[in-house]
Amino acid sequence: MCGIGGEFRFDGAPPDMTAVERMLPALASRGPDGEGRWQQGPAALVHRRLRIIDLSDAGAQPMVDDELGLAVVFNGCIYNYRELRDELIAAGYSFRSTSDTEVILKAYHRWGTACVQRFYGMFAFALVEMATHTLVLARDRLGIKPLYLAEGPGRVRFASTLPALLAAGGVDTDLDPVALHHYMSFHSVVPPPRTILAGIRKLPPATVRVITATGRSTDTLYWRPEFTRAAADPMSAGEWQERLMAALRTAVRRRMVADVPVGVLLSGGLDSSLIVALLAEQGQTGLATFSIGFEAAAGESGDEFHYSDLVAGHFGTDHHQIRIGASRFVPAVHDAIAAMSEPMVSHDCVAFHLLSEEVSQRITVVQSGQGADEILAGYDWYPPMANVARADAVEAYARVFFDRRHDALGGHLAPEWMLDHDASLEFVAAHFAAPGADTALDAALRQDSLVMLVDDPVKRVDNMTMAWGLEARVPFLDHEVVELAAACPPGMKLAQGGKGVLKAASRGIVPDAVIDRPKGYFPVPAIRHLSGPLLDDVRDALTARPARERGLFRKDYLEELLDTPNAQRTTLGSNALWQLGLLELWLQRIGV
């Protein structure tokens, strides 16, 4: 787990090494254990290291193999690297380290860009073919590891974070109006390749991009689950439960590979509790688990310690209960915003940031339960999709998920920022129109698993944990688990109020009180109910000179929100004022 960056030229000029090295401080939190740099011909690579596998200097990056003529920087973990290493040794390759990074180099040499199909893990890497002056960029199937891009005259730069590219300089920081539309409509999700800044893009998940010495670029999408099933499904509900639990056992076991201890972020919900249960089942003892809670606000509880304590006690974990008082809260909000590569509205960001700060003082790697709700229909907007005709799926999805419809957005955005077309609905329609996903619910789950999940919960966890040099692994997003969930009949997923197949499979493994509890989340009441210093900060950001000059929002709408800061909620219950305020706080934080 690390931070990567670099520049590739295709105009005959050498890379601007000074600009590339300016990325390193912005990547330091992702890799506090060392840094490296390499430059040859048209390519320059930089790296910040977090030691997880092969703690020796042999695992340092950039990793260069002069014999094979390859150099690479890599962020993530290849969970099956030992099996691949054995296969490559049998094919005649020799290794000088025990790292998964070196496996990527040899695997690419043997199988070319198809090597990514053999990787079980989370990864973003940049690989240089020295002889042909070719750059290969790749990202894992579910986009767990980020990779941002900034093109300029005769070159492309890339990095694990958006602020690292800003630090390198030469970026068009104008706002992208289409991305702004997505942010305001599509529940603050900006799908790839866009970001809110016009000059920075992101490589889509499950994509390999090859850039030649002339600047020619070719993308290959190497994975996409179908979300379909045989017309006559031969498996019973019990067999589906058995298959799902077997896949999860494998996924959890894979994510224990490390040369350091691995803990669990335990929210007290079913998903993280099941991870603890499966680790205990596999013989893990003294497992470190961590839960966080906040002070209540407006009558809303700020913790779920009752359930996390129950699970920790049941499985005998080394449990750490982290309570956050009011004095730490407002500074933590601004620290979380500083850690964001893109503006992320979810108040979970603050919880994950504070939790990661505490956890990183004790441990370096954790497993976490993200992804189960998106792949197994755990959210409350999925049941309304169950009986919708496939032809009506786009409109039904927009009705339950979009924060604002296009017509309403005209009363919120300033006229100069309004598009003359509904970019967000058009994006969803195109995604729903792709082959597969025969039912409306399948289409919604595919949309959320491949788009929303990547650029909301997954990005949130990566940004907040890596701000403290903490590696988070997500077994529910093992691609084999996702493929199995996609094929599972919709009714089994919707049963028992959502995630029915998982709840049924968990009986006898997780305490019933956790399975039958109301659905929870990381509660941060002080953001849902803005008041005091945080409300003052939001007001200041939205009325500051940069915000006035930018002029994103209609004055009357802004005044209405500021007059009644907790009155307006989006479709999914978010604070509408916080959505606007967060965007301005983030833009001003990065200096735009």
Task: Please give a handful of descriptors for the protein shown.
592 residues; alpha+beta; Glutamine Phosphoribosylpyrophosphate, subunit 1, domain 1; Rossmann fold; six-stranded antiparallel beta sheet; 26 helices; 17 strands; 40% helix; nucleotide-binding
Task: Give a brief description.
The chain has 592 residues and is an alpha+beta fold. The chain has 26 helices and 17 strands. A six-stranded antiparallel β-sheet has the order 2-3-1-9-8-10.
Account of the 3D structure:
The longest helix is centred in the middle third of the chain and has 18 residues, at 237-254. Strands 2-3-1-9-8-10 form a 6-stranded antiparallel beta sheet. The mean pLDDT is 94. With 592 residues, the chain is α+β, with helices and mostly antiparallel strands.
* Count of structural domains: 3
* Oligomeric state of the chains in view: single chain
Count of alpha and pi helical runs: 26
Number of strands: 17
EC number: 6.3.5.4
Protein name: asparagine synthase (glutamine-hydrolyzing)
Domain Glutamine amidotransferase type-2: 2-214
Binding site for ATP: 265, 292, 368-369
Task: Describe how the helices and strands are arranged.
Layout: E1 2-9, H1 17-21, H2 23-27, E2 35-40, E3 43-49, E4 63-65, E5 70-78, H3 81-90, H4 100-111, E6 121-129, E7 134-139, E8 148-152, E9 155-159, H5 162-168, H6 177-185, E10 201-202, E11 207-211, E12 217-221, H7 237-254, E13 262-265, H8 270-281, E14 288-294, H9 305-315, E15 318-324, H10 326-338, H11 348-359, E16 365-367, H12 372-375, H13 393-401, H14 406-409, H15 423-432, H16 440-452, H17 454-466, E17 471-473, H18 479-487, H19 490-494, H20 500-506, H21 512-515, H22 525-528, H23 532-543, H24 545-550, H25 555-563, H26 576-589
Parallel strand pairs: 13-14, 13-16, 14-15, 16-17
Antiparallel strand pairs: 1-3, 1-9, 2-3, 4-5, 5-6, 6-7, 7-11, 8-9, 8-10, 11-12
Helix pairs in contact: 3-4, 7-18, 7-20, 8-9, 10-11, 11-17, 13-15, 13-16, 16-17, 23-26
